Amino acid sequence: MHRVIAWLLVLAGLGGLVAGALLATVLRPPPTLAAVADLGDPGVAVVSAPGVLELTGPRVRVTAVADGRDVFLGVARESEVREWLQDAHHSEVTGLTETGTGHVLGARTVPGREAADPRLADIWIAQSAAAGRATLDWPRRPGRYLVVAATDGVAPAPATVRMEWARTGAAAEHAAARPLATAGSAALLLGLALLLLRRPARPHRPLRAGQRRRPAVASGRTVIDVRDPAARRAGSTARGHRS
Amino acid sequence: MTVAPTSRARRGAVTRAGGLLSTGVLLAGCAPTPVPQAQVETAAPRPVVTPEQATRISQAAVEAVADADAAADPALLTERVAGPELALRSARYAAARAGAPAGPAYGADVLEPLSAFVPRQEGWPRWLITVTQPGPDRLPSLALLRSESAREPYRLWASPSLLSGVSLQPAGSPAAGVEAVDPEGAAGLAAAPSEVAQRYADVLLRGPDSLHAAEFAEDSYRSEVAVVTRADAEAVRAAGGTYAQERALVPGSVVAARTDDGGALVMAAYDWSVTHSLPPEAGTGRLAPVFAALAGREAVRGATRRWVEVMAFAVPPAGSGPVRVVAAQHGPVAVEAT
């Protein structure tokens, strides 16, 4: 049983190490996590919900597309975006929804009225504007920030919004890679230790009269069959032992 | 006696362990979809803009003013200029179109910021003050920019030039922001900012006869206004005419930022009007070119000339001496001839 446990630990340890190594290399998460929202009715602005910009990683790249129109992207503090939106008809990107093949951005529509031209407002801490397609990189910072994608605040907002979060540090690693590798290493070392540090077999002593060697059926090792009463009287402990 | 496991049992155990391991790896391979977690926002007010925003806002005003000045077109100002600055520049454009020489503007010609007073504030309206590079008058200006709502930009509202020889009390860095002082609250000051502005209006009108004259240190702007109005009034009265002036604080114009000495930098705007009329026997008087340009004619029997003035005060802590005028801007904006 001792050896079985040891071998199981060795096998499990090797498995853990291999699995951890695979998760840290071949099965490592992609360097970015990307998702797209295709909105049928975006309203006059598309706004991220609190926490969406900081979903993972140190920075996010937002891209908005509105064919044939000027596209504006801006990031501002949540309270200021709410002041800017007021009762505007807009879409709020609420987070990621997993599909069988990846992720999409989930969104909800908030009915309302027109907003104002976002290019005139000075609430934006970072902004980008371009014809047809605009891109904005936002490095994570403390606080509650939202991104707004719009055209002129009156015409429909970009119907396609893509967010791509860069993953570094813990977010770039598979959550199970390190634990598996660590646990695997521990199990492997423990198993090897059990195998190597087991009590060594005693050196064979010369057989006395009446003693004979016979194969141990169960273990396949040699046992000493004690039959000589003299040896027993002499305190010999030549009892069978399994190595 | 010990019973050793059979090789079949051993294979089973290994298979089970392998299965468990594979399941673990497969489960581990399914990384969870991250869920948005909103960060906690600090409750304390923060600077209304970042230093980068302040620079961008100033730059937008600089470009708008440069374009409008080049075309002498006030329509180009409205997106980024408002209040006294819009009135002053519009009047200057009108006078220039009529061929009148532009007088001293007492305002910023260069708006590039050197530093800024950015208040810590929530809600709207909002404001910030930048200290600009010296212009042709070799004096820096205080550019006051105001935003009425989240949907509206900061517009250059006034840009009084520092008076010669004055210095500004330092205040918090643009990144940390400064405390916005309630215009109606004294808060350890010699007087509430609005009260300071009201009292200085009285000093400008009455000169040394004002009850509040001793509360303000002497300044070059007050001296100049006193000399000009005295000469003006004497000329009209010598012709038998009447001369009267009024000065009213522009409602909502007072802003104040705490300075490091416990005092405040206060800015306020006035509507100043001077009405004169000549008796019929005196004939008509002649308006100076800039007023004539605004009035549409030169010869008048009487006129009401309107200026806007923007003043900046260094208000000390209570009991720490007189209020100092540190910057001034003024100019004619309209003339109604009779």
Structural class of chain B: alpha+beta
**Count of extended strands of chain B:** 14
Assembly context of the chains: heterodimer
Strand content of chain A: 25-35%
Instruction: Bin the helical content of chain B.
Output: 25-40%
User: Shape of chain B from CA axes?
Assistant: elongated
Basic shape of chain A: rod-shaped
Rg result of chain B: 32 Å
- Count of individual helical segments of chain B: 6
Largest sheet geometry of chain B? 6 strands, antiparallel
Q: Radius of gyration of chain A, rounded?
A: 35 Å
Quick one: biggest sheet of chain A?
A: 8 strands, mixed
Region (Disordered) (chain A): 205-243
Biased composition (Basic residues) (chain A): 205-215
Pfam families (chain B): DUF8094
Domain DUF8094 (chain B): 45-331
Give the tags:
heterodimer; A: 243 residues; alpha+beta; 3 domains; eight-stranded mixed sheet; two-stranded antiparallel sheet; 4 helices; 10 strands; 23% helix; disordered C terminus; B: 338 residues; six-stranded antiparallel sheet; four-stranded antiparallel sheet; 6 helices; 25% strand; elongated
Question: Could you walk me through the main structural features you see in this protein, from its secondary elements to its overall organization?
Answer:
The complex is a heterodimer of chains A (243) and B (338). Chain A has 243 residues and is an alpha+beta fold. Chain A has helices at 2-24, 78-85, 177-196, 229-233; strands at 32-38, 45-48, 59-77, 90-98, 103-110, 126-139, 145-150, 160-166, 212-215, 222-225. Helix content of chain A is 23%, strand content 34%. Chain B contains six helices and 14 strands. In chain B, helix 3 crosses helix 6 (289-295). Chain B has one domain. In chain B, a hairpin with an 8-residue loop joins strand 13 (302-315) and strand 14. Chain B has 338 residues and is α+β, with helices and mostly antiparallel strands. At the A-B interface, helix 1, helix 2 and strand 4 of A face helix 1 and helix 2 of B. Chain B: Pfam families: DUF8094 (PF26366). Chain B: It comes from Kineococcus xinjiangensis. Chain B: This is DUF8094 domain-containing protein. Chain B: Residues 45-331 form the DUF8094 domain.
